[in-house]
Amino acid sequence: MVEKDKVRNPDQLTLGEDIAIQLLRTSELRATKKASRKPIVEIEDAPLDTFARLQPQVFSDEYTVRYVRFSGEILLLSYPRKRVKEIPGQKRLSTRVKIEGRPHKNWVRHRDIETVIRKANHILEKAPDTKINIQNVLELTRNLFFKFHQGEITREELSIHFEEVYKLLKEVGLLRVRVPQKKLAVDQILKAMNLDKIDRFNPQASKLRLASSSIKQTVELIGLGKATSKYDRLLLLLLLEREYERFCINQVIERW
Fold first, then answer.
1. Taking residues 199-228, what's their average pLDDT?
2. Cα separation of 209 and 190, whole Å?
3. Which of 13, 28, 144, 247 is the most buried (most CB within 10 A)?
4. Helix (H, G, I), strand (E, B) or coil at 62
5. Range of the domain at 212
6. pTM score > 0.70 for this model?
7. Is residue 149, in this structure, part of any structural domain at all?
């Protein structure tokens, strides 16, 4: 264990310490590469996917937004994430999440362009708070990692730190998450603040869990940034399209 306020030579680090530190230092790089990879996705509704691709695009350079010719409905390509159901009576710390299969995509029907605009606005309004919450938890995770590394968290103080972490996660609503990746990140933080399976105080295992959680949170942060950019652009296009449609309708009215 590293003594408090004492910097150790890298050559003196144990294998576990070295692995954990390298994981933490490269988390953003690994997360960036993971988030930038184009995933292989499965189609939730194949007939609807075929139908949607036969419909014209609302915007020539945006294939994810289409409209149905005979009804005027807007079809928006979505990538829903599977959620995990909580089993009644199951302890939070014993929850195990197994992510199976590939990401899914689906075309979501919207009644008209106004509905899509409201959806885009709703997503963009929530994004800043979500980003702040992720950043706060990510900062907490890294701080805990270095406290373990410097020996500032002892077995006797573990329960105190657990209560502080649990309170923060509860305040930002992360204890209720059902999305597998988020749930795994939260569970790893909570497990890091507890004794291991055989009731030992194990700083090395805690650091590895925190480093792994840090990577997952960084991926979430990058994904949020991509989604925000997507809906920012989409909202601008939709607003322009709405104004064009209003202009056309006014022209028709004036002629009559």
1. 87
2. 9
3. 144
4. strand
5. 10-40+113-255
6. no
7. yes
